[in-house]
Design goal:
The complex is a heterodimer of chains A (111) and B (110).
Chain A: E1 5-7, E2 10-13, E3 19-24, E4 31-37, E5 43-50, E6 53-56, E7 65-68, E8 75-79, E9 88-95, E10 101-102, E11 106-110
Parallel strand pairs in A: 2-11
Antiparallel strand pairs in A: 1-3, 3-8, 4-5, 4-9, 5-6, 7-8, 9-10, 9-11
Chain B: E1 4-6, E2 11-14, E3 19-25, E4 33-38, E5 45-50, E6 54-58, E7 61-66, E8 71-76, E9 85-92, E10 98-100, E11 104-109
Parallel strand pairs in B: 2-11
Antiparallel strand pairs in B: 1-3, 3-8, 4-5, 4-9, 6-7, 7-8, 9-10, 9-11
Classes of the chains: A mainly beta (111), B mainly beta (110).
Chain lengths: 111, 110
């Protein structure tokens, strides 16, 4: 039973480009959570999705960031027109009850 | 007041001693509490969860919960160098998303 799969592991983008981060939850899990972790800081909640629904996006920046979890395929976190401040580790987690299981994360570097 | 507060450390403990990590939370309605361990450059890993007041033991780890004081702690007995990591306290809020503390860095010195 594969865990939470995230790709790519590392992503380098130039300022102004788009970043797409993908997450496939554990088999049987229908809830996906995205968190961002800046260097030397804690995990900050971004968005909570179920299949085809955004349940809570209270942690998402108002501009440039969007997320989806289609009926088929992985969840996508999309960052348009990236800036240096977007450089961080982005973790996806899935849950089917108590507690989360995290993926290995995508480390985004904006140059 | 932050929803989940932890002392950032670093907390330095000699090998073989007990490491004590503390966490306070603001939402009195919280029912479950989690401890995650995160090694540098890695993803968080769930190591303990607790729902009821009192202690819960799992191997060298003991989680302690006091809902009246809104306080949860993690004790690590017989600390090993491999326990050196950041420990994150996590509490689901009323909107069912888990809020993480900023973490306590633990260093076990040989």
């Amino acid at each position: 039973n594969a865990g939470v799969m995230q790709n790519p592991r590392h992503l380098v983008r130039r300022r102004g480009q788009e970043a797409r981060l993908r997450c496939s939850p554990m088999k049987g899990h229908s809830h996906v959570y995205w968190y961002r972790q800046l260097p030397e800081e804690g995990l900050k909640f971004m968005v909570y999705l179920q299949k085809e629904n955004i349940i809570d996006e209270s942690g998402m920046p108002k501009e440039r960031f969007s997320a989806e979890f289609p009926k088929e395929g992985p969840s996508i976190l999309r960052i348009q027109q990236v800036v240096r401040g977007d450089s961080a580790a982005y973790f996806c987690a899935s849950s089917q009850g108590e507690g989360y299981t995290f993926g290995s994360g995508t480390r985004l570097t904006v140059v | 007041q932050k929803e989940v507060e932890q002392n950032s450390g670093p907390l330095s403990v000699p090998e073989g001693a007990i490491a004590s990590l503390n966490c306070t939370y603001s939402d009195r309605g919280s029912q479950s509490f989690f401890w995650y361990r995160q090694y540098s450059g890695k993803s968080p890993e769930l190591i303990m969860f607790i729902y009821s007041n009192g202690d819960k033991e799992d191997g060298r780890f003991t989680a302690q919960l006091n809902k009246a004081s809104q306080y949860v702690s993690l004790l690590i007995r017989d600390s090993q160098p491999s326990d050196s990591a950041t420990y994150l306290c996590a509490v689901p809020n009323s909107a069912s998303k888990i809020i993480f503390g900023s973490g306590t860095r633990l260093s076990i010195r040989p």
